[in-house]
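Job type: complex structure
Entries:
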Amino acid sequence: MPESAIRPRKEFGKTIAADITHRLREEIIACGLPPGEPLRFDVLRERFGASFTTLREALTALAAEGLVDAQEQRGFRVASVSRQDLVEVTDARVLIEVELIRRSIARGDDDWEIAVISTLHRLKRIEQRDPEHPLRDPEWKIAHRQFHQALVSACGSATLLAIRAELFDRAERYRHLSANFRPRPRDKAGEHQAIMQAAISRNADLAVQLIETHIRSTADNVATYAAHLLDTE
Amino acid sequence: MPESAIRPRKEFGKTIAADITHRLREEIIACGLPPGEPLRFDVLRERFGASFTTLREALTALAAEGLVDAQEQRGFRVASVSRQDLVEVTDARVLIEVELIRRSIARGDDDWEIAVISTLHRLKRIEQRDPEHPLRDPEWKIAHRQFHQALVSACGSATLLAIRAELFDRAERYRHLSANFRPRPRDKAGEHQAIMQAAISRNADLAVQLIETHIRSTADNVATYAAHLLDTE
DNA sequence: CAAACGCGCATTTTCGAAAATCATACCGTT
DNA sequence: AACGGTATGATTTTCGAAAATGCGCGTTTG
C-alpha cells in the first residue's frame, strides 16, 4: 500500500481543493484563524502547501458559506463576528431546527431512533472520559455534531439540512470564541438526554421547546463571556 | 473615456470571476444551460473567454448555491431537477419567506412601504406594456424579483435574506423550465396587488397566507406543465 | 464467451509565472 | 503646511502549460 507510505496530502475528499476547503473550515470554526484575520495567499500557501488558484477556490467556497468575507480586489479575510450576526445566526437556527425536528419526529423510523440513541450514547461516553473543556476535544465536537445531526436527519429535506449545516458551523465558531473565557461548561449532558427522550417518545412540542432553549441559552452564554470580542468590532 | 471604447469584459463586479459567476448564474436560471448539462471547460472557455481556473472558481461558487453539481474528479454539471427537489425548494421558501414577511410587517418603516409600493408600480407598468410571456422579458424578471425582495427587505436579518435569495433563484429556474410549456400565464398581477395591500395595511396573517398560496400555486403550475421534464430524471 | 487487465485518449485539476490592481510614501507645487 | 499627483512595492487576480485522473476500447486470459 504505497499511499500510506508516501503520506497522501489529501485526507478529505478526492481533490486538493476540497481538502483545503475542509481544513480551512475547521480552522476558522475553531478560531485558530481568528475573526477578521486577513487571509493572505503567501501565508496560506506556506501553511497549506497549495497554489494560489487552489486556495482561491477554497476561499470562494467558504465565502459562500459565510465563514469568509471576500473583498473584491482586496483579498479575503475570516468573517468578522458581531452581536448582530450572533443574533441572526441564532434566530435562523431556531427557525429551521424547530421545523426539522418536527418533521423528523413525524417521519422518523426505527433507524432514526437508533441513530439518535447511539449518537447520544457515544457523546455521553466521551463526556465521562474527560468531563472538562469538551470543545477542545475533537472527538467530543464530532460526537456532539453527529447527535444533533441525527436528531433532524429524518426530516426528508436535503435542502434544509444543507442550510442547517451551514448555520451550525457558524454557531460553533461563536461557541469556540467564548470557550476560552467561560469558567465552566454548564450541564449540557442533561439537556441532550432530555431532548433525546422527547424525540424518541414523539413529543414534538416538548422537543421543540427544549431545542429552542438549548440553542438560545448557548448563544446567551456566548454573548456574555465573549462580550469583549463582540463589541470591539 | 477609454473603457467604453475598449469594451470592458467585466460588466458585473470588479473581478472577472465574479462577472463569470453572475453570467453563469443567469444562464442556468434561464435554462439556457439546461438541467443536467455537463459543463466542460473547453466549451465554457470558448463561450465566456476565461481561463480554466477562473471558470473553476465561478463553478465552485455556484455549486455552493445549489445551481451546479460538483462531481469530484469528474467535473461540473448544471444541477439536475426533480419533483423531490422542487418540493424541497418550495417548502423551504414557504418556511423562510413567511417568517421574513412577518418580521418586515412588524418592523418596516416609511422607506419600506415606499419600496414595496414603487417596485409593484414598476412591475405593473411593465406588465401593461407587454402582457404576455413575462418570463422572457428581462426587465419583468428584474422588476418581479425586486418587488418580492422589497416585501421582505425590512426583516432585519441579512443571514436569512441571503438564504432566501438562493432559494428564490432555484425556484425561478423551475419557473423557466415550465414557461415554454405553459399555455398562458395566470393572473399574477392581482396576487401581487393583494399581497402589497395586506403588507402595507400590516395585516400579517393575510399577507402570510397570500404569499404561501402564491409560492405553492406557482410550484404546482411548474409541476403540472413541466411534468415530463421532472419524471425522466 | 465472459471477465479482467492494460493502454491511450479526453478531461479535469494543479501549478507558478505574469499581468493587473491596490496601498503607501515621496516629491513638487500652491 | 496642505494638497495632488506619481512612482514604487506589496498583494491579488488571471492565464495557459503541465501533471493527474477517469473513461472507453481492445486485447488477453480463464
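Summary: Chain A has two domains: 2-78, 83-231. Chain A touches chain B at residues 13-15, 17-18, 53, 56-57, 60-61, 63-66, 72-73, 85, 88-89, 91-92, 95-96, 99, 157-160, 162-163, 167 (CB under 8 Å).
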